[in-house]
């Protein structure tokens, strides 16, 4: 795909969360968490700080614990590459309410912009399919993003995996709270559980 056809990361995330209703959104370490915050802070946003590679597994745990709620993981290609083994566990467990979206700019944005493996041989959609996630797709248009945003709400048709090619623009960081206790207690409270 030519660089001119790459999607804007903030537009992608805004479209995914525009009509979120009861969606729980988990942001991977770094830029994807900032993108979720830029789309609007919400009590059902769960921001990862210091847990690179863990977003998909946090999503899996929440999806299994709350099977009637749509769970949406939004992460980056570097974070997904680090946690690629999680796709095998997700493929085995098959949580129907889990959707994973990878914002793939083909670089490690949090460590200096080095080229990631997705710029060459690594095919995350192929890996997800091989791990038992048949609804795995490469997304290159906003119409496809909007269709996925609607599909996220169907908690009987997952898991879903999407790799979205985005540009590597350096956008303003919109930082959410980094207070782990606050983040956990806020989401627990919104889901009807006591704080810890």
Structure characterization notes:
- It is a single chain.
- The protein is of the alpha/beta class and 196 residues long.
- The chain has eight helices and eight strands; from the N terminus they run αβαβαβααβββαβαβα.
- The strands form two sheets. The chain has a six-stranded parallel β-sheet with strand order 2-1-3-4-8-7, with helices on both faces. A two-stranded antiparallel sheet has the order 5-6.
- Strand 5 and strand 6 form a beta hairpin.
- The longest helix is centred in the N-terminal third of the chain and has 11 residues.
- It is globular, with a radius of gyration of 15 Å.
Task: Provide a quick synopsis of the model.
The protein has 196 residues and is an alpha/beta fold. The chain has a single domain, classed as Rossmann fold, CATH 3.40.50.970.
